[in-house]
Amino acid sequence: MAVTSRNLRTSTQRSLRALSPQPPKVQRVAQPRSSNMLVYGIILLGVIVLINLILTPVLGWASTRLDDFRYGRPRTVQLTAHVGHEAASGLPSHFVALNLERRVVILELPGGDATQTRTIVGPYLFGAGEDLTPVLLRFADVNADQRLDMLVNVKQEEMVYINDGASNAFRIITADELGQLQSH
User: Fold this and answer.
1) Residue 13 and residue 16: Cα distance in Å, rounded?
2) I need a surface site. Which of 19, 60, 72, 117 has the fewest CB within 10 A?
3) How far is CA 148 from CA 33, 61, 172, in A?
4) First CA to last CA distance, the chain
5) Ramachandran sector of residue 17 (left: φ over 0; alpha: ψ -120 to 50; beta: rest)
6) Mean pLDDT value of segment 134-161
7) For strand 93-100 and strand 75-81, is the pairing parallel, antiparallel, or unpaired?
8) What's residue 9's pLDDT?
């Protein structure tokens, strides 16, 4: 028996591997970037739609709760102003604007006197959820007659009520008066 310094098993396995046919190397063909971008774009669009579907009702609910906190139910706004209807008391008039089941109603307490309350009936609001729309008031001298007129804002539409000095009341602006104001 001969003694060798080589391991015969390892050298035999190496020679057999060298003789066996090697599978051909497969070259990967790179996919065009446009198809990857299309997939990413579709995924991004899906995520945006999903976020929109989730956030829209949540933001609507939060907006309604914020209006509940600000204006209550029914939607109510109060304001005090010197409009010239105070008579002898000299106190400012108190105004309460309400959205009562889609009907805009404004109460004026001249000089803060509740026994002299005047009611101004405004427009009826149409549409779903309009019973929750706040009615906002502000006062400005629109027709330059030195008396504050009442501006009623509902859903970013403004109605002008002229302060009629003769009757100490507010009345809706006429088409002629509106035309004169717009021409200036």
Assistant:
1) 5
2) 19
3) 67, 37, 14
4) 125
5) alpha
6) 92
7) antiparallel
8) 59
| CB-based burial label for 90 (10 Å; 0-12, 13-18, 19+) | exposed
For the segment 41-48, the average pLDDT, to the nearest whole number, is 94
The C-alpha atoms of residue 137 and residue 150 are separated, in whole angstroms, by 7
SS3 state of residue 49 = helix
- Residue range 75-183 forms a domain whose CATH class is mainly beta
- 79-130 tens-digit pLDDT: 999 888 876 778 899 999 999 999 999 999 998 888 989 999 999 999 998 9
Helix (H, G, I), strand (E, B) or coil at 43: helix
Q: How far apart are alpha carbons 40 and 63 in whole angstroms?
A: 33
Q: How confident is the model at residue 13 (pLDDT cuts 50, 70, 90)?
A: low
Return the pLDDT at 166: 72
pTM: predicted TM-score of the whole model, two decimal places? 0.69
The whole-number pLDDT of residue 178 equals 85
Strand stretches in 14-155, DSSP E: 75-81, 93-100, 103-109, 118-124, 135-140, 149-154
Task: Tell me which residue has tokens 């009562």.
Answer: 100
Q: Where are the beta strands (DSSP E) in 1-148?
A: 75-81, 93-100, 103-109, 118-124, 135-140
Looking up tokens 């006429």 gives: 174
